[in-house]
Amino acid sequence: MVSSLQDTVELHNGVKMPWFGLGVFKVEEGSEVIESVKAAIKNGCRSIDTAAIYQNEEGVGKGIKESGIPREQLFITSKVWNSDQGYEKTLAAFDESLRKLECDYLDLYLIHWPGKDKYKETWRALEKLYKDGRVKAIGVSNFNVHHLESLLKDAEIKPMVNQVEFHPRLTQLELRSYCKKHGIQVEAWSPLMRGKLLDHEVLSKIAHQYNKSVAQVILRWDLQNEVITIPKSIKEPRIIENADIFDFELSNDDMEKINALNKNERVGSDPDTMMKDFE
Transmembrane region positions (predicted)? Predict the structure, then answer.
C-alpha cells in the first residue's frame, strides 16, 4: 500500500518516481504558479509536472528555488510540445525548458502528444538526452497502444512512463494492461476529470463511507490501480486535502464500483484525432 506522499515507484531503469505530484496545467505564470509550487513542496509534495506549452516553466523554477528544498530531493517533469517535434528541434526545446526552469537536469521528459509521423525522431532526441545524463527518465504522453507498438519497433530505450488522461470515466484498461506488460509506468493527467466527477452520486456515497471527499477517493483509486497521479490545484487548502489520501484504503468492492463507472469518455483531446499544431 502506498502510505505516504514521499512513497515512490521504481521505473524500469531504476529511477524512483513519487506516486503523487502536483500538476500545473493552466496555472498562470507568475505568482499563481510560484505560490502553488511552494505550497505543494511545503506540504510534502516532491513531484512537479509542467510542460513547455503551459508557459509557466519559469514560475515553476522560481517556486522550486524559493521552496528551500534541495533540487535533488525533487522530481521535475516537463514535456516537448508538438511544434517542437523532430530531432534537432526537440534538443533545442529541452535546452529552453532547462533554461526557464533554472535546472541542470530534468527527472522526466515526455513527448507531449504522438501526432502523425515525427515522434520517432523526437524519441531519438530523448534517447540522446538520456544517454548524455541530462534527464533521468524519458517517456511519452497521450500514446495509445498502436503508438507505443510503433515506437517500440525502432526505439533503443523503452519509455519509462506514459502519461495519459485517466479517471473513473476513462479507465484505459487495454492501454494499462499493455503498459504493465512492457514495464511502462502509467501516470494520470486530469485525474478528477476537470472537476466533473466531484458531485457524482456513486462517488459521493463511497466518499461518505470513508469520511473523505470525492477528490480524495478518486486519487486513492488511482494509486490502488498502480497509476501515478498529479492533480492540479492553486489553493493551499485544496493541495493539502488532495494529498491527504494515505490514511485509508478502498475495499475491493468499492474499487469495482468505481471501475464500473467507465464510459470511455474524455475531457481532453483524443490522441488519434489531435493532429493540430503538427506541421
Answer: none
> What single-letter amino acid sits at 60?
V
CA 92 to each of CA 55, 112, 142: distance values in angstroms, whole numbers, following the listed order:
16, 15, 22
Taking the C-alpha atoms of residue 241 and residue 124, their distance in angstroms, rounded to an integer, is: 40
| 151 close to 187: Cβ distance less than 8 angstroms | no
Catalytically annotated residue among 54, 119, 130, 178: 54
Q: Considering the chain, what percentage of its residues have pLDDT values greater than 70?
A: 98
82 sits in the region (left: phi over 0; alpha: psi -120 to 50; else beta) called: alpha
The one-letter amino acid at 109: Y
| Domain 13-259, CATH among 2.130.10.150, 3.40.50.1240, 3.20.20.100, 1.10.40.30 | 3.20.20.100
The reply to whether 54 belongs to the active site is yes
Measured distance CA(216)–CA(218) in Å, rounded = 6
Which set of grid coordinates corresponds to residue 209?
Answer: 463511507
* Cβ pair 135, 127 in contact under 8 A: no
- The CA angle 171-174-176, to the nearest 5 degrees, is 65
| Whether 243 contacts 5, CB under 8 Å | yes
CA distance 94 to 83: 13
Give tens-digit pLDDT for 98-134.
Answer: 999 999 999 999 999 998 889 999 999 999 999 999 9
